Amino acid sequence: MPQHGTFVWNELHTRDVERAKRFYGEALGWTYDAMPMPDGSGTYWVAKAGDAFAGGIFSIADPRFDGMPEHWLSYIETDDVDARVAKAKAAGGQIHREPWDIPGVGRIAILGDAGGAGLGFMTSAPRQA
Predict the structure, then answer these.
(1) Alpha helix segments (H runs only) across 6-59
(2) Prediction pTM value
(3) What is the pLDDT of residues 59-75, one digit of tens each?
(4) Is 84 within 8 Å of 77 (Cβ atoms)?
(5) Which residues pair with 97 in a beta bridge?
(6) How far apart are CA 69 and CA 90, in angstroms?
(7) Is pLDDT at 27 greater than 90 in this prediction?
(8) Beta-carbon neighbour count of residue 81 at 10 Å?
(9) Which domain does 48 fall in, by range?
(10) Is residue 1 part of a domain?
(11) Helix, strand or coil for residue 84?
(12) What pLDDT, on the 0 to 100 scale, is given for residue 129?
């Protein structure tokens, strides 16, 4: 399991997924695996450097993301997302999306730190041997 308090995943939020895939494919040699979104809202792209996971690409072309700039979002592993979200709120953070589960991935929340910087908290699902 990843260690509590360490960065474990990076995700590009973009309006043009194909442009981003082409750019990172050409610049870094990344390849991509499609993963249907659990809520049926589209496809999440898992970027790979060889056989290693490099990050993800998520479309923000939907109108609900209007006004949000394209950006990279980093996720930090936590020992208990729900408890850490409560601590983040008490420390002055803003919760943008309360914790939810992604089967086979883990439990995730999206928040802003006390200065407004966006990040994700994640408690990874146990890895299959």
Answers:
(1) 17-28
(2) 0.88
(3) 999 898 999 999 999 99
(4) no
(5) 110
(6) 27
(7) yes
(8) 23
(9) 7-61+69-124
(10) no
(11) helix
(12) 60
